[in-house]
Amino acid sequence: MIEMKVRRIGNSLGAVFPREALDRLNLGEGERVFLTEAPDGYRITPYDPEFERQMNFAEEGMAAYRNTLRALAK
């Protein structure tokens, strides 16, 4: 577990991530993170859940029209 402190950053509040957390999340300066609600609280992740949902729809569509897409690619 990593404890973080909420701090004032200009007129806002923010949390500074320790290097080990940034390395584990594979994050660098300026990259986005997402706070999602989980059954036991909240989760911080670099993965956009909306993008993942859209990709699942795309994969379903590609699977349903596999032969058509293959013919169009020729």
Describe this structure in words.
The chain is of the alpha+beta class. It has helices at residues 19-25, 49-64, 66-73; strands at residues 6-9, 12-15, 34-38, 41-45. It has a two-stranded antiparallel ribbon with strand order 1-2. A hairpin with a 2-residue loop joins strand 1 (6-9) and strand 2. The radius of gyration is 19 Å and the shape is elongated.
What's the helix and strand layout?
Layout (H helix, E strand, L loop, with lengths): L5 E4 L2 E4 L3 H7 L8 E5 L2 E5 L3 H16 L1 H8 L1
Poorly predicted residue ranges: none
Percent range for β-strand residues = 15-25%
Distance between the amino and carboxyl termini: 52 Å
What's the order of the H and E elements? EEHEEHH
Number of helices: 3
Largest sheet: 2 strands, antiparallel
**Helix share bin:** 40-55%
Radius of gyration: 19 Å
Query: What is the general shape?
Result: elongated
Summarize model confidence as the mean pLDDT.
88
Structural class: alpha+beta
How do the strands line up in the largest sheet? 1-2
State the total count of DSSP E strands.
4
